[in-house]
Design a protein that fits this description.
This protein has about 300 residues and is of the alpha/beta class. The chain has 2 domains: about 180 residues, Spore Coat Polysaccharide Biosynthesis Protein SpsA, Chain A (Alpha-Beta Complex); about 60 residues. It is built from 13 helices and 8 strands. Helix 10 packs across helix 11 and helix 10 runs parallel beside helix 13. The longest helix is centred in the N-terminal third of the chain and has 17 residues. The C terminus is likely disordered.
C-alpha cells in the first residue's frame, strides 16, 4: 500500500501536526509505504520523516504555482504530485488523521482508475480532495487538468476539487465506488464527526477524521486532547491551565490519566502554586477521576 500526502511546514503547529499524522498513518497502516511531498518543509521536519521511514518527495522545478494564495497553490501542487506518481496510491491530506487500516480502500484499486467520495454522498457536490485513491497511474494527468483550468480562467471556488469535478464531467466519469460512501472519510468534521464527539471518543466506524474546517487539530475542543498527548518521540506543547481544565472536562479517564502521568510535573507545579480556587474546582467537579490520576502520578514520581 502506498500513501501520499503533502506538507508545507507553515509553523510549529503544522509541523507538529505533520508528525502526529505520520504516527497515525504508520500505526493504522503498518505495511504501507508513506510518501510526503515537500512544499517547503524545514530541514528538521524532513529529517524526522526520513528517520521514521517515510520518503520525502521534492517539489520539482517544473511544478507550477496556481491560485490566489498558498492554500490554493498547495491544492494544485497535490495534483501535480499525483500526476507524477508511477504506482497506485492513496492520497490523504495532512490534516486528516488515519484511524483505521485503509486496506479496505486499497483493495479496490483495480476496480476503478480513480475513487473518491462526494461531500455528504451527494454527486451534485464536489468530491473530497482529502482522501483519494488513484488506482491507475497517469489517470490524473496534470497537463490535461491545466488545459481545462485555463479554459475556465482558473476560476474555481474549491480549487482542486472543482477542477477534478469539471474533468470527470468532461469525460463522463463517476469517481464514486459503491462500497465507499461519504461517511468513510468524514470530511467536514464540524458537521459530521464533531457533533458526535461528546466525550472525545472517536466513532468506531470512522476511518479518517478530517480537520478541514476553519479550526485545526490544536484549536478544536473535541481534538484538543489529541494535541496535548505525548506520542512516542513527539513532545507535546506546554499544557496551559485552561487546556488542563478542558482535559478534565472531557471526562475521558484514560486520557486524563495518560496526560497527568506524562505531564506530572506540570500538574504538581499547579498544586504548588496554592491556587485553591482552581484546585478545588477540579477536585469538586471530577473527584474520583482526579484523585485516581493524581495518586498514580504521585506514586510514579515520588
Amino acid at each position: 500500500m502506498n500513501i501520499l500526502s503533502i506538507c508545507r511546514g507553515v509553523d510549529k503547529n503544522w509541523n507538529r501536526m505533520a508528525k502526529i499524522w505520520l504516527y497515525f498513518a504508520q500505526k493504522s497502516c503498518p505495511s504501507a509505504k508513506i510518501y510526503v511531498g515537500d512544499l517547503g518543509m524545514p530541514s528538521e521536519l524532513i529529517a524526522y520523516f526520513q528517520s521514521k521511514g517515510a520518503e520525502v518527495l521534492p517539489k520539482k522545478d517544473s511544478y507550477e504555482w496556481h491560485g490566489k494564495n498558498l492554500w490554493a497553490a498547495s491544492s494544485y501542487y497535490k495534483l501535480q504530485f499525483l500526476s507524477d506518481f508511477v504506482e497506485p496510491v492513496i492520497y490523504v491530506d495532512l490534516d486528516a488523521l488515519i484511524l483505521k487500516d485503509l486496506t479496505v480502500l486499497w483493495q479496490l484499486r483495480n476496480d476503478k482508475p480513480f475513487i473518491a467520495v462526494h461531500y455528504w454522498n451527494d454527486e451534485n457536490l464536489p468530491i473530497s480532495g482529502g482522501l483519494m485513491l488513484v488506482g491507475r497511474p497517469g489517470f490524473i494527468n496534470w497537463p490535461t487538468l491545466r488545459s481545462l483550468a485555463e479554459k475556465n480562467n482558473w476560476n474555481f471556488q474549491m480549487n482542486d476539487q472543482d477542477l477534478l469535478g469539471m474533468y470527470f464531467k468532461s469525460i463522463d466519469y463517476k469517481p464514486k465506488h459503491e462500497l465507499i460512501g461519504s461517511d468513510f472519510s468524514y470530511s467536514g468534521i464540524d458537521m459530521q464527526w464533531r457533533i458526535e464527539a461528546g466525550e472525545l471518543k472517536y466513532r468506531d466506524d470512522a476511518y479518517i477524521v478530517h480537520c478541514c474546517g476553519k479550526e485545526r487539530l490544536w484549536q478544536m475542543k473535541e481534538t484538543r486532547i489529541v494535541w496535548f498527548y505525548r506520542f512516542p518521540g513527539i513532545e507535546p506543547p506546554h499544557i496551559k491551565l485552561d487546556s488542563l481544565l478542558e482535559i478534565y472536562k472531557s471526562k475521558n479517564i484514560k486520557y486524563i490519566s495518560a496526560v497527568l502521568k506524562r505531564k506530572a510535573r506540570v500538574f504538581l507545579n499547579l498544586m504548588k502554586t496554592g491556587n485553591i480556587t482552581i484546585i478545588f474546582k477540579i477536585l469538586r467537579t471530577y473527584m474520583h477521576t482526579a484523585i485516581n490520576a493524581i495518586s498514580e502520578t504521585i506514586y510514579k514520581y515520588k
